[in-house]
Design brief:
One of its GO terms (molecular function) is gluconate transmembrane transporter activity. By secondary structure, the protein is mainly α. 79% of the residues lie in helices and 0% in strands. The chain has one domain.
């Protein structure tokens, strides 16, 4: 059975990376083929595929869609631009790399990587020209922070899927993720950027296509920050309420309601619709159009996540789950290290961090139930592995190359090394945190 699993993963990798088959179709093809190879009746394979797709999307689709809507509004309203400008002015030239990293962190929580990249690249070029600093020295810390937020922290698609699959605690995962993300961003961002000063890319005209709103049209800085980070603030409030006002029934009920990701994201979108939309002169039609476009942009991500869940369910229903669990439990390699290594291999082969993460969720599903490990740290170990070794089969690699006018060699030297640093530091943080929690 394990041999069939290996062959199925290799086929999945070949379909996506070599044959250029859409990831959604590749997952479905491999899921159906795997079920048949495991000896399941075809009707049962179809049932497993339907159940896996429905269960996976049912647990994360609402949150991902609401997160996409919030991110799109934060981008189009100018809130992200306001935050970037504020950080730029606050830190000045001496600490500009730290300003860029902090901006990437704040903007990266609600925005998907590609959206955040397109939005913030003009600001990187503007800061570079203002201070006459090397482009990668200024830009890489921001890209580092955006990437870490995308790979490690909810409400991004891969972390949310992993939290659902492994039944992790979203608040603990977010908290542990911030602890691990901080040194990863500092080392792979501002500190690593110092080594990139001698790379002098020619730049690209592509950046001129990214519109920057006039200063007078931007929302206020407090409005921008609060609207962007409101999900985090509300979840923190949910945990503080019982401590501040006691365990009254209505306080406990409110706390339980606020800690639910769906409630938090829906409330945030409703509030942001006014604070970043209606109050700034946008019509409801314009705002709903913005939300509609956001959903269109992540439709394929949702389909890929659902189809990955279908493959996972076939693995579970075929009893491969039990066979793999026995092998993993008796493995000499620590489970968290094994999870990181498996995901890193998938990332190098498949390119997409999201696809690598959700694929690893299916393959590593037995670990969470048979190895007695911290499911929150398992999510972060997989998240770290999903960022390792980005190269020519990753769209983010080409975004960095083309927008910054780099050669392939320069992109490997800068972007690929940065992603690998983040991944390895993330793994080290997971292992250290696991050790401290066990003691």
């Amino acid at each position: 059975m394990v041999l069939v699993l290996v062959l199925c993963i290799l086929l999945l990798v070949m379909l996506i990376s070599w044959a250029k088959v859409n990831a959604y179709l590749a997952f479905l093809i491999v899921a159906l083929l795997a079920g048949c190879l495991f000896g399941m009746p075809f009707t049962r394979v179809i049932t497993s595929v339907n159940k896996g797709l429905g269960d996976t999307l049912g647990s994360v689709a609402i949150i991902i869609i609401l997160g996409a809507m919030l991110g799109k509004l934060v981008a189009e309203s100018g809130a992200a631009q306001r935050i970037a400008n504020f950080m730029h002015a606050l830190f000045g030239a001496r600490y500009v790399t730290y300003a860029m990293a902090l901006t990437g962190c704040v903007v990266g929580i609600p925005l998907y990587y590609n959206v955040g990249f397109i939005l913030l690249v003009p600001i990187i070029f503007s800061v570079t020209q203002s201070y006459r600093l090397p482009l990668l020295y200024v830009g890489m810390p921001m890209l580092t922070a955006l990437s870490v937020m995308h790979g490690f922290l909810p409400p991004h698609p891969s972390p949310m899927t992993l939290i659902s699959v492994f039944h992790a605690d979203i608040v603990k995962t977010f908290g542990y993720g911030l602890i691990i993300a901080t040194p990863a961003i500092l080392v792979a961002g501002p500190l690593f950027a110092i080594t990139l000063k001698n790379i002098r890319p020619s730049g690209s005209n592509m950046v001129k296509a990214s519109a920057v709103l006039p200063e007078k049209e931007l929302p206020g800085i407090l409005n921008s920050i609060v609207s962007s980070l409101l999900p985090v603030m509300l979840i923190c409030l949910a945990y503080l309420l019982p401590m501040l006002f006691g365990p009254a029934p209505w306080i406990i009920a409110l706390s339980h309601w606020l800690v639910e990701p769906v409630s938090v994201m829906l409330l945030t979108v409703i509030i942001a619709t006014y604070t970043l939309g209606l109050s700034k002169g946008k019509s409801m039609t314009q705002i709903m159009g913005c939300y509609g476009n956001a959903v269109k942009e992540i439709a394929m991500i949702l389909l890929i996540i659902g189809s990955a869940g279908a493959l996972k369910q076939v693995f579970v229903d075929s009893r491969l789950n039990d066979a793999l669990a026995v092998m993993l439990v008796h493995s000499a390699m620590p489970p968290l290290l094994l999870a990181w290594l498996a995901t890193a291999c998938l990332r190098v082969c498949l390119g997409s961090a999201t696809v690598a993460g959700v694929t690893a969720a299916g393959v590593l599903f037995p670990i969470a139930h048979h190895a007695g490990i911290n499911s929150n740290l398992l999510v972060l170990a997989i998240g770290g592995g999903s960022l390792f070794g980005s190269h020519v089969n990753d769209t983010a690699f080409w975004l960095c190359k083309e927008y910054f006018g780099l050669s392939v060699k320069e992109t490997l030297r800068s972007w690929t090394v940065m992603e690998s640093l983040v991944s390895v530091i993330g793994l080290a943080g997971v292992l250290l945190l696991n050790g401290s929690l066990e003691n």
